[in-house]
Amino acid sequence: MAINNVALIGGTGTLGAPVLKALKASEFNISVLNRQTSKSVYPKTKVITIPDDLDVDDVAQALRENQIDALIITIAGSHVESQKKLIDAAFKGGVKRVMPAEFGSCDSADDKTNEILPLMKGKKVVREYLLSLEGKERGNGEGNLTWTSLVTGHFFDYGLTCGLLKFDVKGRKAYILDGGNIKFSGSNLDFIGKAVIKILEKPDQSANKLLYVHSNHVTQLEVLAALEKVTGDKFERIDQKSQGELDVARPKMLDGDGEAREEVVAVWGVVASDWKEKEGFANTILGLEEEDLEQTIKRVIAEL
């Protein structure tokens, strides 16, 4: 399978922007799908305008006319129906590979995770929808639609700036869960962009797979030590029990509290997101190497 023409939707988001940057620096021909009334602007990038309602036939026609081989979806993973429409359009439009909006902190293939964090169930629903199309024949002699779902762990560098890893870097505070020695997986945003490129460059090896990657495999205590070394400051350490934090945040989350949902994601992404020994861990297959923790933190501190 050869992939040449790649389209991205969601190219201005926290993840979409760095993925688009990586795509534009690659050998692929890149287009961005942009809804009709969107205010997003993409300088020096081919833009394919699509209807706001993602009408399947119209989007399929746009994909076919532009000979799109792969569609990368970086809209919010909670937008299940929108993703299904885009997948249907990709199927009808002759697209060879879809990457759904799986990317993120927690593992949607894990039953315990889906129980703790119902948000993840939507990602599982989308993946199961892709599975249902896997063997479905298309006309015109076109091959089957294939997919790759990528689980990245916490967005590591971004997470250090916004409390996602349980550190308040500006306030010099560290919220340490369960002693701080739990290994967890996280990925810097530009590393995720690299992973997407590698998947597209190895379409046969990555077809119809749920893959896990990370740029950092660390404990909170290792992150704390690196933060204190780089900043030269002592951080206030606040010890927390993960179960206690979940017991407080989950009921609020289930009542629709967005901040509480972020807290559950933050906690669970530290205590239950170690990909190193997981089936589907793909750093080696994709030729990706872990990145230096101290260098990452130096960069984050400089940008802050």
UniProtKB/TrEMBL annotation:
Keywords, sorted A to Z: NADP, Oxidoreductase
Pfam families recorded: NmrA
CDD domains tied to this protein: PCBER_SDR_a
GO-annotated molecular function: oxidoreductase activity
Superkingdom of origin: Eukaryota
Oxidoreductase recorded as keyword: yes
Record's signal peptide: none
Keyword NADP: yes
Domain NmrA-like per the UniProt entry, residue ranges: 5-132
Protein name (record): NmrA-like domain-containing protein
Source organism of the structure: Neocucurbitaria cava
